[in-house]
Design brief:
With 328 residues, this protein is α/β, with parallel strands linked by helices. It has two domains: 3-93 and 285-327, Rossmann fold; 96-276, Rossmann fold (3-Layer(aba) Sandwich), CATH 3.40.50.720. It has 13 helices and twelve strands.
């Protein structure tokens, strides 16, 4: 029976889909450096939190599939996986609505000053209500950076509650945005400057890492809020701390940080106008159930030697390395 290492136990439907079909090892750690002994004995690796790099891939000749229960693969050396004939399973088009809802929830929570109001009220400061920090979102502009499936859903939800939408996506033509009735900006700084809320929906790539830096923060309105439910390293966190300390940003709603699990000593946790959730935007019962089931099914299919379609490196199926591993 094949062995699958699951970095951290998945939501029950996913574990149920694996149960009895493979031997399951759960180290509660996804760092390939620290669990390499487990990975050397594995046929499959389902990575929730952590990373797997080239060194680990080269050291694991029996590894036949790497699975991400989601769409982000910035923590997987996909190039190395492809070279060594390992499909990297992803779960696309599942979490877009959940992440969009979470983005909207952060926008609303920031606009109503919920974090400070709840904290102060619990301390007995009922008069926090008279700070008049809450604002209404209707008529305000949300700038959506990244107009893929999640970005489009965020725009739809925001538009439905009366917000104006400005969108930026370097991979799209103007007409692909304006056909929805939204404003288009070809320049990211210009899009940022128009937003009362700026929400990020881009993958982590060499081009997007620390994309929101000192230079881009200079384009924000001092009354604007930043929302990030994409990837933590898109934002230069040191720059974010600086603008918050200087009062040049109204606040931020973050579901992701550059280092996870999140360090409670991170200075961003000290701001009353910053809401940080534990990378949970896609962790709804509905979405998680679909995602982990898809992750399990994809893992098992690849282990059976099938060409599972939902992988981020489909070119791997053309390699001799894949054919060699699939025949095992």
């Amino acid at each position: 029976m094949d062995t699958v290492v699951v970095s951290h136990a998945m939501y029950k439907p996913g574990m149920d889909a694996l149960e009895g079909k493979v031997n399951i090892v759960i180290p509660n750690n996804g760092d390939s450096d620290e669990i390499l002994d487990h990975l050397k004995k594995a046929d499959g690796f389902i990575l929730r939190i952590g990373k797997i790099d080239r060194k680990a891939i080269e050291a694991c000749p029996g590894l036949r599939v790497i699975t991400r229960p989601g769409v982000g693969v910035d923590n997987v050396d996909v190039k190395a996986a492809t070279e060594y004939g390992i499909p990297v399973v992803i779960c696309p088009a599942v979490n877009f609505h959940a992440v969009a809802e979470h983005s909207l929830a952060l926008i609303l929570a920031l606009s109503k000053n919920l974090k400070e109001s709840v904290d102060e009220n619990e301390r007995g400061n009922f008069s926090i209500r008279s700070k008049y920090a809450a604002t209404e979102v209707a008529g305000r502009t949300v700038s959506v950076l990244g107009f893929g499936k999640i970005g489009r859903e965020v725009a739809r939800l925001c538009s439905a509650i009366g917000m104006k939408v400005c969108a930026y996506d370097p991979l799209l033509e103007k007409e692909q945005i304006t056909e929805y009735g939204y404003e288009y900006e070809a320049d990211m700084a210009a899009a940022i400057s128009k937003g009362d809320y700026v929400t990020l929906h881009m993958p982590s790539t060499p081009e997007t890492r620390k994309m929101i830096n000192d230079g881009m923060f200079a384009a924000f309105k001092s009354t604007a809020f930043l929302v990030n439910c994409a990837r933590g390293d898109i934002v230069d966190e040191s720059a974010l701390v600086r603008v918050l300390e200087a009062g040049k940003l109204a606040g931020a709603g973050l579901d992701v940080l550059s280092a996870e699990p999140m360090d409670p000593k991170n200075p961003l946790f000290s701001f009353p106008n910053v809401i940080i959730t534990p990378h949970m935007a896609a962790q709804t019962q509905e979405t998680t159930g679909k995602t982990v089931t898809m992750a399990a099914e994809g893992t098992l299919a690849v282990l059976r030697g099938e060409e599972w379609s939902n992988i981020c490196n489909p070119e791997v199926y053309k390699t001799d390395a894949w054919k060699h591993r699939a025949m095992r």
